[in-house]
Amino acid sequence: MAKESSDRVFLQNSIKTLATNIRFASVDNPVSTLTITSSVPNEGKSTIAIALAQAMASNGQRVLLVECDMRRRTLAGALGLHARHGIYSVLSGQTALSDAVVETSVRTLHFLDCEPHIPNPVDILSSRRFKQFVEQVRSEYSFVIFDTPPLSAFVDAAVLSTVVDATLLVVRQNFVRRDELTSSYEQLKKAGANVIGAVMNYCENEKSDYYYSYYTKDGKKKRGHRHDSAPTLDPAPVPQPAPAPVQQRPAAQQARPAAQPASRTATPNIRPIPTQQRVSPESTAQFLAGTNYRPRPYEDE
User: Fold this and answer.
1) 3-state DSSP call for residue 111?
2) Which of 122, 215, 225, 237 is least surrounded, with the fewest CB atoms within 10 Å of its CB?
3) What is the CATH number of the domain that holds 57?
4) What SS3 state is found at 171?
């Protein structure tokens, strides 16, 4: 359970960082419409599209997530939504955009699905009506995300990249081959796409466990991070010096009784050394709780 929570927290932080990087990708021409694609299937592009849309909408922006994988729809099932109308009915003028868009669990996030078995998706994406549709959603929403098919099978993403502000390429670690990735990137560049970057997905995270245990009270010990429940190490044995040779003394001196060690009660002002090892406080708050320190009025809490 702790591992799943750690991965979830790390994913949320990574998506927020991605959203921030996209927001500042171009200062002069801010990105408001984005195409998300991948080289081959099962690289997690739809998952990234949903997570990014939710992160954008959590900041109060009006975000529209559009299903443009007209051959294999996945967003509606992942979101648990059912729409009566889709993008084809909007492009054909049968339904208004406001009637086709459905709300999601995030208040400012909206979703536009596509109908199944749409003929000639490439012709639709390259049509003049679709370009007008992109301009319409650009004016009504702060950010629009288009989820598209993989580039190795179809050219939909390359065609759509010519009418949006930027394109994001999702790369699954240890899954896609180098030649497939370079071929997809070259295909986008030949189409004139503004590829602002790539997202590494399904990658092993080496820091999530450490940071999760650091920022939670009940986290388990990870990567040498010390907790109150961590066992203490016994001190290393100190080597004792070799005994000096015994010198013979006169019989009178040998008969004198040895001096008795001073009793602890004879020196009441000396405190005994504690035998229990104290563990350093886990945080600054715990340290201050054990002292008489009180913050001044002008100091931060």
Assistant:
1) strand
2) 237
3) 3.40.50.300
4) strand
Whether residue 182 lies inside any domain: the answer is yes
- Would 251 be classed as within a structural domain? no
Give the Cβ contact number of residue 149 at 10 Å.
21
What average pLDDT score do residues 40-45 get? 94
Compute CA 29 distance to the chain's CA centroid, rounded to the nearest angstrom. Answer: 26
CA distance 7 to 284: 26
Report the sign of the C-alpha dihedral through residues 262, 266, 271, 272, in that order: positive
Counting Cβ atoms within 10 Å, is residue 300 exposed (0-12), middle (13-18) or buried (19+)? exposed
Computed over its alpha carbons, how large is the radius of gyration of the chain?
33
CA–CA dist 109, 103 (Å, integer): 7
The partner residues of 103 in beta bridges, in order of sequence, read: 110
Provide the residue range defining the domain that includes 112: 2-201
79: left (phi over 0), alpha (psi -120 to 50) or beta: alpha
pTM above 0.85, yes or no: no
The top-scoring range by mean pLDDT among 66-75, 261-270, 271-280, 281-290 is: 66-75
Residue 272 within any structural domain of the chain: no
Q: Report how many domains make up the chain.
A: 1
Beta bridge partner(s), residue 235: none
C-beta separation of 64 from 112 below 8 A: yes
| Ramachandran category for residue 167: left, alpha or beta (phi over 0 → left; psi -120 to 50 → alpha) | beta
Q: What gap in Å lies between CA 177 and CA 78, rounded to an integer?
A: 27
pLDDT-based confidence at residue 6 (cuts at 50, 70, 90)? low
CA atoms within 13 A on the CB side of 18: 26
209 belongs to a structural domain? no
Instruction: Count Cβ atoms within 10 A of the Cβ of residue 116 and give its class: 0-12 exposed, 13-18 middle, 19 or more buried.
Output: exposed
